[in-house]
Amino acid sequence: MALLQISEPGATPQPHQRKHAVGIDLGTTNSLVALVRSGTPETLADESGDSLLPSVVHYAADGSNSVGLLAAQRAIDDPLNTLSSVKRLLGRGLADVDSLGAQLPYEFERDDGGMPKIRTRRGTISPIQVSAEILRTLAERAERAIDGMLDGAVITVPAYFDDAQRQATKDAATLAGIKVLRLLNEPTAAAIAYGLDGADESTIAVYDLGGGTFDISVLRLSRGVFQVLATGGDSALGGDDFDRAIADWIRRQIGLGDSLDPKQQRQLLASARAAKEALTDAECAPLDVLGWRGEFSREQLDAEIMPMIDSTLRACKRALRDAGVAVTQVDDVVLVGGSTRTPLVAARVGEFFGRPPRANLDPDLVVAQGAALQAEVLIGNQSGDDLLLLDVIPLSLGIETMGGLIEKIIHRNTTIPVSKAQEFTTFKDGQTAMAIHVLQGERELVDDCRSLARFELRDIPPMVAGAAKIQVTYQVDADGLLSVTARELVSEVESRIEVKPSYGLAETEITQMLKDSYSHARDDMAARALREQQVEADRMIGDLTAALDRDAHMLSNSQAQCLRVAVAELRDLRRACSEHRTLAQQIQAVGKASESFAALRMDSSIKSALAGHTLDEIDQD
Ligand code: ADP
Ligand code: MG
Question: Considering the domain boundaries, does residue 513 fall inside one?
Fold first, then answer.
């Protein structure tokens, strides 16, 4: 007779319901999906055994789509309907298309002000739709492997992705019907895959050079907690750029101008890439393209790509400086991305850090594997106590204050999630509304920073200037998305905004903004000081003019005249002077000259306030 099974007290009678969550590396060039099975992350392959899915979608005339290798094969005969590298466009603005457009052989639709859409025979397609196709293909692959529905996914993004780019990635997942458990920075995922949480304390640099992006992250591991100390990189630099450099080299050999059609362009790039990849193992690669035969050597490759590698190393230097870490303090260097297979890349990175980098896991797979491990924790299949993840924001977030200045609320490289509040007050008597302008950047003046959002706090009860208490709270969630709340503390009026910034800040712009903030630091300080004095001067001119209009009768004619002249001089200086110290001196002088007038006015207002009250009544207040 069969034995009946009885469950333990407290345990559910149902067998344990395991949830299924995967990690997805949504790459510019290749995408992957990985799943944890018996504690080990495995990347999932398609029927033919490939786990790398080329991030390419082909839109056919008959209304069907193909994704991956099949799509990539259509790139040469049907380039305008074969969309690849759209991650470069994800969350970008039309303005970025001009710089990227030369590299991407598509026709862009330029009429809607948002993310650039690509014109195909099947209508205009947004980069979000293309990404959704790729994500759906991977999700289906996973659903076949688990023979069930997917409960969620961790999707990786370059550490440098800004708010808009992260939001666009989430939108693509939603469109694909995938629940996003977390967006995870790619380098962080790689560190997880390497299980670098074994050590007690260590500092790890993750160097990720893929097809389209370069990321450097400096991670700090402390008792099982990963913290991203700093990130840097360039979202427009990768193996594709190596390919273009080689293609240009070939063009020079053949003596071709720039007038290649898209098909020839693709053929040229395909041979360039094949030669580059062959040179990872060989010293010399044959070339046979556009009717030209030749050879390309490792030495020639090295010469072509050296400047680009140097540029990545400069970014490493900056990231270390941001992290406050000396190169000798780095305990581990991890290589990620297909382009780190190129021998010169690994060699130069090793030289720079003074130690051989880790590369024993497949640099193409590590990101998806790490994401799968994190997904397993987040879906609740495994205790997450031992793997807490912290990331940082790449640029400071601030608010516009009087005089076009920015007050930083959350500083760059602050770990997220984070919430910070600051109190502000009104500038004018009876002010009932306040304009909140949310900005991103390192510079001191609003004009030099990027505007993320504007909103208004209304219905503030009228009070004298400076009496209202407006608390502005900036909150950045674990995915790096910002929400801002403004609240008047006396009346409790509140206004809130989810910041979904207009698509459009390119990586190079972030780098430029950072560079500018270093090179302009001194100018900015002076400009800030001047603005502060100008605001002060305006306040003094306004106050004194109003006071003279009302109470000049308290002064003798000559005293009043003197003050009027002082105010007029201050007004002229405010307009003409560009030196904050001079302006400050004049403000002080006018302040002194008007002291006795202020005292007279104070006395008289106290007298009128006291009129009709006994002293006892006043005391009781
Ligand atoms: P992404 O993260 O941008 O999707 P990957 O990490 O998949 O990119 O890397 C793709 C890049 O790696 C391409 O530029 C490809 O040419 C390059 N690559 C792949 N294999 C090799 C190799 N054996 N040698 C050199 N480069 C390679
Ligand atoms: Mg990658």
Answer: no
Q: What is the DSSP string of 261-310?
A: -HHHHHHHHHHHHHHHHHTTT-SEEEEEETTEEEEEEHHHHHHHHHHHHH
Q: Is the CB of 211 under 6 A from ligand 1?
A: yes
Give mean pLDDT, residues 397-411.
87
Which of these three, 368, 391, 414, is where a domain ends? 391
**Confidence band of 275 (pLDDT split at 50, 70, 90):** very high
Rounded-to-integer distance, Cα 317 and Cα 349, Å: 11
Q: Give the full edge-to-edge strand order of the sheet including 108-109.
A: 108-109, 117-120, 123-125
The strand pair at 332-336 and 201-209 is best described as parallel
* Coil, helix or strand at residue 237: coil
For residue 178, report the distance from its CA to the centre of ligand 1, in Å.
26
List, for residues 193-221, the tens digit of each pLDDT value. Answer: 998 866 778 899 999 998 888 889 998 88
Looking at 391, 422, 450, which one is the last position of a domain?
391
Cα four-point dihedral sign 72, 312, 322, 471: negative
Q: Which of 25, 26, 30, 246 to mutate to test the pocket of ligand 1 (most atoms within 8 A of CB)?
A: 30
Which residues of 64-166 form beta strands (DSSP E)?
Answer: 65-67, 82-84, 108-109, 117-120, 123-125, 152-157
614 pLDDT band, cuts 50/70/90, is very low
65 and 95 in a single domain? The answer is: yes
Q: Which domain holds residue 570?
A: 522-610
- Evaluate whether residue 96 is within a structural domain: yes
Total domains, the chain: 3
Both 233 and 122 in one domain: the answer is yes
* In a shared domain, residues 387 and 397: no
Same domain flag for 139 and 173: yes
Same domain, yes or no: 27 and 149: yes
Among 277, 280, 336, 367, say which to mutate for ligand 1: greatest number of ligand atoms within 8 Å of CB: 277
pLDDT of residue 309: 97
Q: Is residue 46 part of a domain?
A: yes
Tell me, what CATH number does 136's domain have?
Answer: 3.30.420.40
Ligand 2 centroid from CA 28, angstroms? 7
Does 399 share its domain with 386?
Answer: no
Same domain, 147 and 203: yes
182 within ligand 1 shell (Cβ under 6 A): no
Q: Is 54 in the pocket of ligand 1 (CB under 6 A)?
A: no
CA 515/CA 448 separation, integer angstroms: 12
pLDDT tens profile 500-515 = 443 434 445 545 555 5
Residues with a catalytic annotation lie at 25, 87, 186, 208
> Are the C-beta atoms of 170 and 466 separated by less than 8 Å?
no
CB-based contacts of 402, cutoff 8 Å, min separation 6: 427, 535
Residues 68, 203 within the same domain: yes
At 77-104, the pLDDT tens digits run 888 999 998 998 888 776 666 666 556 6
Ligand nearest to the CA of 245: 1
187 lines ligand 1 (CB under 6 A): no
- What's the pLDDT at 199? 72
Cβ of 239 closer than 6 Å to ligand 1, yes or no, is yes
- The bridge status of strand 180-185 relative to strand 152-157 is parallel
